[in-house]
Amino acid sequence: MLTTLSRKIIMALTGLFLCLFLVIHLLGNLQLFLPTEEARLQFNWYSHLLSGNILIKIISYVLYLSILLHVIDSVIITLKNKRPAPRYQYDQRGRASKWYSRNMGILGTIILIFLVIHFKDFWYSYKFGNMPVDSKGQKDLYQIVVTAFQEWWYVVLYVIAMIALCYHLIHGITSAFRTLGLYHPKYVRWIKYFGLAFSVIICAAFALIPIYIFFTMK
Amino acid sequence: MKLTLKIWRQKNQTDTGSLQEYKLDQLNPHMSFLEMLDTLNEQLIIKGDDPVAFDHDCREGICGQCGVMINGMAHGPLPHTTTCQLHMRSFNDGDTIYIEPFRSEIFPIRKDLSIDRSAFDRIIASGGYISTNTGQAPDALAIPIAHEVVEAAFDSAACIGCGACVATCKNGSAALFTSAKISHLVLLPQGKEERAARIKNMVQTMDKEGFGHCTNTEACQVECPQNISVLNIARMNYEFIRAKALEK
Q1: With a cut of 0.85, is the ipTM above it?
Q2: A93 and B170 in contact by Cβ < 8 A?
Q3: Do B231 and A185 lie within an 8 Å CB cutoff?
């Protein structure tokens, strides 16, 4: 039987791994900001490189496992917290904490729904769908991405998901380090600023990609 | 001062209970919150009604007995103040005040506002102590301890075990209470000896009692009458990981 502390450690470790993945994912996606034809060849080459690499394959399995564990563990924690959770007729406890800290589950669900759509449209299409090819004969994922982001509602969906992710990370990063036992006030302060900067920069950059494509590639 | 009170009345642990309305008049704004409840009870007794049961003892903010949700906030609106140290001047004439017990399945309501916090006692009993020989008191200066360490340990030891952290936590977690007890002992040389057994036993008891997971919303520190730092929770996590990593 896992203790309440161990379950939170699983949340922290999987969450931090997913944060690390976000950095790598974003760095790759920055290629989408290149001029169209250069971006097409560069991005498709990069996608092909990733899909053929055994090391990337291993990391991708760790990634799928992390997402699954993070989700399952969060559901267990939420259900187990239902019994001891206080309930009041007149409740003003909201003054003591941030909305996003109390509603990580709602934010997480938005992110999960987004992930399902995101995986289906890009990951599934790339792996199993009928893909167009570019001038070098590589699967043209770039075209799929650009086409997808021509729809305004699809861009809005991405931006909303990134806002949810941003708040999820602002709480999640400091919370993860606390769960892993970082108690020194100086480093706690640093991590708080780091977490805030990390969340805003990563999510803003991700959100800019669909916005950039929507407005520049009509 | 005139007040309308909506107080949680519940005959016993199995009763469902409900909010009942009472009106009080001619209150002195310099009364403490508990004195206001005393006034109400005197009137109820004169009328032949059942007085409102509530927990209290020292009435100087150090025993941790008093503690109710006042207008949906643990110990009321003032920061870092126990219910007994809250005065009626913190409210306005004509206010309606909601008074409910600290709630959690782990703290069963005995009657009205009085709750059973013995789950905290069982957490303490499972490791919140040091093993030492009885007999004459040891020389106070026999073990050198740096002043800042003493202060840090004392800050954690200031927890009065009132249960406001659990009552405020959206998950009903006892992490702040348990971690304060763990930090207080592990910071001092006398407490370091049994640190591994202590953390494992106290966390196990905390879980067995059914308290929730800490999700680091930090509401507990905000509502804590002693301003116990959430960094105690980080230290508890550190101690737990350390104990598990060094386990034989």
Answers
A1: yes
A2: yes
A3: yes
